[in-house]
Design brief:
The chain folds into two domains: about 10-155, no CATH class; about 165-270, no CATH class. The chain is about 50% helix and about 10% strand. It is built from seven helices and seven strands. The chain has helices at about 95-105, 120-135, 140-155, 165-195, 210-230, 240-275, 275-300, and strands at about 10-15, 35-40, 45-50, 55-60, 60-65, 110-115, 120. Strands 1-4-5 form a three-stranded antiparallel β-sheet, with helices on one face. The protein has a two-stranded antiparallel ribbon with strand order 2-3. Strand 2 and strand 3 (about 45-50) form a beta hairpin. Helix 2 runs antiparallel to helix 3 and helix 6 (about 240-275) crosses helix 7. The longest helix is centred in the last third of the chain and has 37 residues, at about 240-275. The radius of gyration is 24 Å and the shape is globular.
Length: about 300
């Protein structure tokens, strides 16, 4: 597969979708794309609608105009809060993310027909997303990470894969098994590193009973070699498997730490809203405890 060359002019103004009495405007290939968003807030969920369409000329399907419906809503780049440090909600990749959101808005069914009459299923929508990110100037590493993430979602979402049920389930079982094995080995490796006899763990031979720095090196090596082998279970999506499995293995502990911090923050927010007096008392207790510990440990 040849590297995709950045071609920003593949994006252009898609005009305005005709709605009710509003007269639609055709796309203008000579005009830059205009992202005009209207914010919606429903049940504390923030989404946006597009006031103007985005046009993108794909290398395989030709012109793609999104959204196809005035009911379309997007949350911009669909990045979980834990990973916005890696892939922010907005940035150079935003036009590509909006095109992808519109293409998969119909769930697992073919969600869009290009101007030239090509049906675009979710697998192809993910490929369009990756190429479109290249055309926005998004870095190579980021766009392949994002593509691997959306491809993983496509594998597991109902109707995401356009093949036979047997082949679809083979891909889901293979991908799910590989991810589960990586999480389990990460659990075992953590116990091995800290010499903890955790339940249901097995020895990790590439770490073993060695000096701590040797175990760290062995753990990092295992976080690359083992996922590379497990990615073969991803079938046609082996490239996504390589990226996804290695990323999961390498960032597993960081993700767990960030998740713990996020949960603690959400718990504090909920407590501050429901029990403000208890929150103030707890804050004072923590501050006093920290002060006493600081003084005691400094003087002893």
């Amino acid at each position: 597969m040849k590297p995709v060359q950045t071609q920003p002019r593949r994006f252009y103004d898609g005009g305005v979708l005709a709605v009710g009495d509003r007269i639609g405007l055709p796309p203008d290939p000579d005009a830059d794309p205009r992202i005009v968003l209207e914010r919606h807030l429903e049940d504390d969920l923030e989404t946006f609608s597009l006031e103007r369409r985005i046009a993108y000329r794909d290398r395989h399907f030709g012109e793609i105009l999104v959204p196809a419906s005035p009911d379309f809503r997007t949350d911009l780049t669909s990045t979980p809060a834990l990973f916005t440090w890696l892939v922010p909600k907005t940035g150079a990749h935003l036009p590509a993310a909006l095109v992808h959101d519109a293409l998969v808005a119909g769930g697992g069914e073919p969600s869009y027909t290009s101007t030239q009459g090509h049906d675009i299923d979710r697998v192809e929508a993910d490929r369009v997303f990756r190429d479109a990110m290249a055309d926005t100037g998004t870095g190579v590493v980021r766009r392949w990470i994002v593509w691997a993430a959306v491809t993983t979602a496509t594998i597991f979402v109902a109707g995401g894969l356009p093949w036979s049920p047997l082949l679809n389930w083979a891909h889901r079982i293979g991908a799910g098994t590989s991810l589960a094995v990586i999480v389990y080995l990460g659990y075992c490796s953590t116990g091995d590193l800290f010499d903890l006899d955790w339940p249901l763990t097995v020895p990790v031979p590439w770490m073993g009973d060695r000096a701590w720095w040797q175990e760290v090196i062995g753990g990092l090596a295992g976080a690359i070699v083992v996922p590379l082998a497990l990615s073969l279970l991803w079938g046609r999506f082996v490239k996504a498997g390589v990226i996804g499995c290695v990323m999961l293995a390498v960032l597993l502990h960081v993700t767990v730490g960030l998740a713990a911090i996020s949960l603690a923050y959400q718990a504090l927010e909920r407590m501050a809203r429901r029990a403000p007096r208890l929150t103030r008392a707890l804050t004072i207790a923590v501050a006093v405890g920290a002060l006493v510990s600081f003084v005691w440990l400094s003087l002893v």
